């Protein structure tokens, strides 16, 4: 009986078959006994082939990586790496414009993708070795690794700046100009990654039509890989809609792109890799967390869960995400550079101009085909800079400003305590400038020269606590998992998990190129002062809103005045000759005390006249140092 005639699908089927064969073997005599032994050998070989993750017979390739050390990858992954579609990632910076602020951040999407594939395999193998009942097959292992390898194929020039800044603006411009819009709605790099992966499969099959079959993969596995890359969210109550794998293997969908709680190997790699290249300390230990990963059934669905004692390590992961966004990804200069890069691409895109001039570049329309998109990398910025085309002059000038560091001047930043739209804040800023100009400043300010940006920072799930969406098991009950109780977490965790920052820049227009530097400096100084007034206005606006809507709060005039003064004085700052380890909040208090002293020297009742006393002064200082 040959192995090809077997129709065995699960371990339980194998077990039943082997038990029957064992019984027949014991009751039989030679030569029938020898035939049954050969059948048993075939059955065992079939089990090992399907459920063992031993690839020792395959010619594994070793990659030496500064983050993960020596990484072994399957030959099929190497074939994918050795395609033009994947090699393109060598020319896309992992952190886009952040590299122009942090000179060490020169790493690319190429090495990150290989690192994610390695970690994906590492996690699958750990689950396989610790929980044989999961019935993880070689095909599962390969599919998850391939998804990790290909999950970022769809990134465009300057990485996230392309799909977060360029694409939305390109769609707006097409609509405003009445141009045909063939850019897909909500176009994100995940969808482009799927398109690029499909093109890789097509090109590999053109060389060898059995390239997937040789490694035990079929069309269903290709569908599974594409589902893993997109990582579509399926809530607990939703019916299982995925086609690549049945619901009992739902945990495999949480490895590469986890939409349930954000814990996936993509983050594990870029946290470690980005921190290494940025020079920022990484307190999260992904290797330790990986060892405590286990699949448990929660709400009738299998999820990857972690030991309860690892709750603090999990929080460190979410905190690391916030830290990287605060210090690097959303850096005040990196953000404005990426804005300029996106503007340069818009001005160079031939599809946004009537007649599609041939001396311009194919950018937004390149999204439509994998062949065109394969040619779209960070090299496009060098193409623009080295071009002599008149149609690319404006785009070239913007990039030249970046190269020469002629960037918009940063005016100020403030945390928002109330959800505001960019449009609302722009109007508030215009009002503040109008009022400030009426006070007779040394130079008049124009609101159009001072763009307003709103930056969202969170721990991965907007205003929600991500820990609440992670399931933990205990040592005594390793097969039962649930959300962690608050008493099991550190009391130092924040009460709020997101914040908004408003930033203002001074952006000179082209006709101001010859503006006197001294006058420009004065404008920035005046704008900084105006910004402090604007912050005070926003603080007072919030307090007044609370007062009007909730009279039971008993907010007084003194409360309103104190909060506004704190907003006005929170950034009085740090003198140039003061020690670097001194926090600006403490110096702001010291400067405020000096202001109070000087005002009292002129009029000792200056505070009393407005209903304020020493207790109110203490309150203001406490608000400044928060």
TrEMBL record:
SUPFAM superfamilies per record: HD-domain/PDEase-like
Ranges annotated as biased composition (Polar residues): 1-10
Any Pfam family the entry gives: HD
Residue span(s) of domain HD: 109-271
InterPro entries reported in the protein's UniProt record: dGTPase-like, HD/PDEase_dom, HD_domain
Region Disordered, annotated ranges: 1-27
Domain of life where this protein originates: Eukaryota
Biased amino acid composition, Basic and acidic residues: 11-27
Family affiliation: Belongs to the SAMHD1 family.
PANTHER family: DEOXYNUCLEOSIDE TRIPHOSPHATE TRIPHOSPHOHYDROLASE, DEOXYNUCLEOSIDE TRIPHOSPHATE TRIPHOSPHOHYDROLASE SAMHD1
Protein name: HD domain-containing protein
Species of provenance: Cirrhinus molitorella (mud carp)
